[in-house]
Amino acid sequence: MLRFGTIGSGWITDEYIHGALDSGLWQLTAVYSRTEERARAYADRHGAKLAFTSVQAMAASPEVDAVYVASPNALHYQHCKVLLEHGKHVICEKPLCAQAAKVRELQAIAAAQGVVFLEAIMFLHLPQRKLLEEALEQLGPISLAKIDFCQRSSKLDAYQKGELPNIFNPKLETGALMDLGVYCVYPALYLFGRPERFQIVPRMLESGADGAGVITMEYPDKLVTLTYSKLGQAGANTDFQGPEGTLSVESISRIAGLSLWRKDGSTETIYDGDEKYQLMGWEAKDFYRYITEPEASQEEYAYCSRLAVDVAEFLQEARKKAGIRFESDH
Asked: What pTM does this model have?
């Protein structure tokens, strides 16, 4: 059993902790928060004996083997760098960094230290991904794919009242593209590779963050559109179209609600879904496997690392085209 710590105390960290502990492979020993009171309260809530207010101190602790990082996007680079330099394995929430060069730098530090550095993207670690791929094969050559993740932000009301929640604050390197958009870019690049060209149209907010956007990716034999939004709640699904029918996916991030619609009018439900913590548990299991079985998982881990760079490069280029600028871009 490996010992892990966490950075971040939001609901996503709660779910990761639940999934990791449920796997039976991990023991939570430490948490980090900016204040002593919050760190201690979070540690007590989850049964961790160590509470840190210094990332440096957590990185130096001999009682922490690995760390799950879920701090604001703008802090990912500095937090991961400190941890990796101290020889800790790191799984970091998406997106890893706003610039692909920083992702490569962190990967190089991890390689030099002999530790695992992984982006926490559920899509790559869910067993139902195989069901998705098998269903796509039944459709014949894909001609059109529409990948969607539009979910009204729980912070939208606060923003509309004049507040500036983290998710709508460009100083924290957030916005729709760098949040829900990542869940669309990953499957697009995983399934189809890099497009020959692409266009992006953002819906910019007064804060300087993007609230929504549409990306059209052009391939020699297909079009792929990505739609993502923090401003509205979508009812439309992701779908993949081929000459033999359509695969509908209710949630691309969870790979849930898979239904095959054949050209003869018949339909087949392939997979419904799991609880959030169970989905994140698969990330924790693969993270553990990459650490404890490095030779057996070398090829798989290397692919995850390459795709993380491809996604970072695509997001950086998309932001440039859309005019979405962060202070760190300079």
From this structure: 0.95
